[in-house]
Amino acid sequence: MQLYSPKAGILTLLLLIGNLLTAQKSITSFSPNHQIVLNINIDSKGQLKYSSSFQGKPIIQASSLGFVLATPAINLSRFQLVSVDSSLTDNTWKPIWGEESAIRNHYAELKLGLKELGKSGILLNIIFRVFDDGIGFRYEFPKQDGLNYFVVAEENTHFGLTGNHEAFWIPGDYDSNEYAYTKSKLSEIDAIAVAKKEKDIAVSSLIGPSAVQTPLMLKQANGIYLNIHEAALINYPAMNLVLDKSTMQFKSQLVPDAVGNKAYLQAPFHTPWRTIIVSNKATNILASKLILNLNEPSKIQDQSWIKPQKFVGMWWEMHTGKATWQKEGGKHGATTERVKTYIDFAAANGFDGVLVEGWNVGWEDWFGNWKENVFDFVTPYADYDVNALAQYAQSKNVRIIMHHETSGAATNYERYMDTAYRFMLDHGMNTVKTGYVGKIIPRGEHHDGQWMVNHYIRAAEKTASYKIMIDAHEPVHPTGLHRTYPNWMANEAARGMEFNNAPTLGMSPDHTTILPFTRLMGGPMDFTPGFFHLQLNQFVPERKTRVRTTLCKQLALYITMYSPLQMVSDLPENYQKYPDALTFIKDLAVDWDQTKILDAEPGDYISIARKAKGTNNWFLGAITDENSRTMDFKLDFLDANSSYKATIYKDAANADWEKNPEAYTIEEKIVQQNDVLKIYLARSGGVAISLKKL
Question: Taking 90 as the threshold, does the pLDDT of residue 274 lie above it?
Answer without folding.
Answer: yes
